Amino acid sequence: MARYTGPVCKLCRREGQKLFLKGTRCDTPKCALERRSIPPGMHGMKRSKMTDYAIHLREKQKVKRFYGVLERQFRRYFQMAERSRGNTGERLMQLLESRLDNVVHRLGFAASRRQARQMITHGHITVNGRRVTIPSFLLRPGDVVSVRPKPKSIERVQANLSELSRPVPDFLTRVDGDVPQGHFGRLPMPEEVALPVQPQLIVEICSR
Predict the structure, then answer these.
(1) Residue 2 contacts residue 70 (beta carbons within 8 Å)
(2) How far apart are CA 86 and CA 108, in angstroms?
């Protein structure tokens, strides 16, 4: 499967905001955006005012990089959102928030979405009691996400839970115990989306 393998700190600098792609490192003085907030590249400091198209494109790229999806997969999510009832932009963000790797991260089981994807592909996570190894698996309201009852799996998640102090959003419920698990109660509201974003700009550029 195709994936971005370059320096992720450049992505935050390009978008001009933290995308939290390196977990706890993003909250320390080592964060590249805090040390050097200009866009990457030799002409980073000479960037002129963005055009209307550039503003729309940057909003789309920001969302793709934040959730770790590439263009083809993002287009598929947009088409699903278009076919759904209601606001297309809000539905698009709900689909991205419903990804298993995002939910594992927001429950605090993983320090970053990249680590969450690794945990899922290595078989450390189950959904409704069945092991799922697909990070893009879309959860439905009522699904239960749990850590496999294996010492290595539980040890890794417990370490993240003790190190992180990330609040769990209202549409999720985490149950701490010998085997941590989380409940996907409902689809998220627009204000519960992890990334400050203007979905309408994405809809406009994808509809062209």
Answers:
(1) yes
(2) 30
The pLDDT of residue 190 is above 60: yes
- Taking CA atoms, 38 is separated from 28, 43, 44, 92, 117, in Å, by 18, 10, 6, 30, 29
Is 99-184 assigned to CATH 3.40.1180.10? Answer: no
- The two three-digit tokens of residue 186, written as one number: 């409902």
Q: 149-162 b/e with 16+ CB inside 10 Å = b? A: eeeebbebbbebbe
Q: What is the pLDDT of residues 100-134, one digit of tens each?
A: 999 999 999 998 888 999 999 999 999 999 999 99
Q: Which CATH architecture has domain 9-94+196-206?
A: Orthogonal Bundle (1.10)
Residue among 119, 101, 182, 98 nearest 146 (CA): 182
Give residue-wise pLDDT tens across range 21-63: 556 555 555 555 555 666 666 555 556 677 889 889 888 988 9
- DSSP code per residue over 128-154: TTEE---TTPBP-TT-EEEE-SSHHHH
What's the mean per-residue pLDDT of the chain? 84
